[in-house]
Automatic annotation (TrEMBL):
<keyword id="KW-0560">Oxidoreductase</keyword>
<protein>
    <recommendedName>
        <fullName>precorrin-2 dehydrogenase</fullName>
        <ecNumber>1.3.1.76</ecNumber>
    </recommendedName>
</protein>
<dbReference type="InterPro" id="IPR028281">
    <property type="entry name" value="Sirohaem_synthase_central"/>
</dbReference>
<dbReference type="Pfam" id="PF14824">
    <property type="entry name" value="Sirohm_synth_M"/>
</dbReference>
<keyword id="KW-0520">NAD</keyword>
<dbReference type="InterPro" id="IPR028161">
    <property type="entry name" value="Met8-like"/>
</dbReference>
<dbReference type="Pfam" id="PF13241">
    <property type="entry name" value="NAD_binding_7"/>
</dbReference>
<dbReference type="GO" id="GO:0019354">
    <property type="term" value="P:siroheme biosynthetic process"/>
</dbReference>
<dbReference type="GO" id="GO:0004325">
    <property type="term" value="F:ferrochelatase activity"/>
</dbReference>
<dbReference type="GO" id="GO:0043115">
    <property type="term" value="F:precorrin-2 dehydrogenase activity"/>
</dbReference>
<comment type="pathway">
    <text>Porphyrin-containing compound metabolism; siroheme biosynthesis; sirohydrochlorin from precorrin-2: step 1/1.</text>
</comment>
<dbReference type="InterPro" id="IPR006367">
    <property type="entry name" value="Sirohaem_synthase_N"/>
</dbReference>
<keyword id="KW-0627">Porphyrin biosynthesis</keyword>
<feature type="domain" description="Siroheme synthase central">
    <location>
        <begin position="124"/>
        <end position="148"/>
    </location>
</feature>
<dbReference type="InterPro" id="IPR036291">
    <property type="entry name" value="NAD(P)-bd_dom_sf"/>
</dbReference>
Length: 188
C-alpha cells in the first residue's frame, strides 16, 4: 500500500541538520538549497568535501562543522538528514531524533526514514514532487526528466494570469471557486 502523505515544507523557516559531508551530504545539501536557497542548514562531519565549501560560499546560511556527530547538534534542529558511511552512526542519529521527535531521513535506508526526498520538477511557481514509494528512485529521476522536457515555460504565464484573475474576482468563496473552475476548464 502507498501510504505516503506529501507535503511542501517551508525549509527557509526551519533549521535542518545534515550529518555526513561526502557525496550523499553534498547531494542532499544541494537538493535542499536548490529549492530553498536561504534555508538555514548545519552540516556536521569530520571530513567535508570541497564542493560543500563552495556551496557554503553561495549560501551564507549553510554552516559547515568539521566534527563527528554528537547528539548536541540536534539542539534547535527541526529536520535531520543523515548519510554517513558509518551505519552505526546513521542508526544512532535516527534513534536520537526519534527520542526528540525530530523528523529524520536516513539516506537510502527506507526503514529508518520518517520522510523520503523526492525528485523535483520546477517550472517557475509550479513544483511537482515525484515519489515511487521507494520502489525505484531511478524511475523518479527519469520521470522528472520527461516532465521537465514536456512542460512548457509558458506555464508561468498561465499561473500569473490566474493569480491576477483570482485577485480581481469579487463575490464569496463559492462564487470565486466556480468562476476559476470555469476559466480553467480548457486545461483539462
Ligand atoms: C528521488 C531521490 C531524491 C534524493 O535523494 O535527493 C531519491 N533517490 C534518488 C536517486 C537515487 N538513489 C539511488 C540511486 C541508484 C539507483 C537505484 O538504486 O535506484 C539513484 C539514482 C541516481 O542517482 O541516478 C540509490 C538508493 N536510493 C534508495 C535506496 C535504498 C532502497 O531503495 O532500499 C537506494 C539503493 C542504495 C544501495 O544500493 O545501497 C532510497 C531512497 N531514495 C529516495 C530518493 C527515496 C525514495 C524516492 C522514491 O520513492 O522514488 C528513498 C526511499 C529514501 C531517501 O533516500 O530519501 C534521488 C533522485 C533525484 C533526481 O535526480 O531527481
Ligand atoms: N554516494 C552515493 O551515491 C551512494 C549511493 C548508495 C549508497 N551510498 C552509501 O551511503 C553512504 C555514504 O556515502 P558517501 O558517498 O557520501 O560516502 P563518503 O565516504 O563520500 O562520505 C562519508 C561521510 O560520512 C562522514 N562521517 C563518518 N563518520 C561520521 C560521524 N561519526 N559523524 C558525522 N559524519 C561522519 C565522513 O566524514 C564523510 O563526510 C555510504 O555508506 C555509501 O555506501 C552512497
Amino acid at each position: 500500500m502507498n501510504t505516503l502523505f506529501p507535503i511542501f515544507v517551508k525549509a527557509n523557516q526551519l533549521h535542518t541538520l545534515i550529518v555526513g559531508g561526502g557525496y550523499v551530504g553534498l547531494e542532499k545539501a544541494t537538493a535542499l538549497l536548490g529549492n530553498s536557497p536561504d534555508a538555514r542548514v548545519t552540516l556536521v562531519a569530520p571530513e567535508i568535501r570541497a564542493e560543500l565549501y563552495e556551496l557554503a560560499e553561495q549560501h551564507p546560511l549553510l554552516e559547515l562543522v568539521k566534527q563527528p556527530y554528537h547528539s548536541l547538534y540536534l539542539n534547535d534542529k527541526d529536520l535531520v538528514i543523515v548519510g554517513t558511511n558509518d551505519k552505526d552512526v546513521n542508526r544512532q542519529v535516527q534513534v536520537d531524533c526519534k527520542a526528540r521527535r525530530i523528523l529524520v531521513n536516513v539516506a537510502d535506508t527506507p526503514d529508518l526514514c520518517d520522510f523520503y526526498l523526492s525528485s523535483v520538477v520546477k517550472k517557475g511557481d509550479l513544483k511537482i514532487a515525484i515519489s515511487t514509494n521507494g520502489k525505484s528512485p531511478t524511475f523518479a529521476k527519469r520521470f522528472r526528466e520527461v516532465l521537465e522536457e514536456i512542460l512548457p515555460d509558458s506555464l508561468q504565464e498561465t499561473l500569473d494570469n490566474l493569480t491576477a484573475i483570482r485577485n480581481q474576482l469579487k463575490g464569496d468563496f463559492v462564487q470565486k471557486m466556480e468562476k476559476l473552475n470555469e476559466i480553467t476548464k480548457v486545461l483539462k
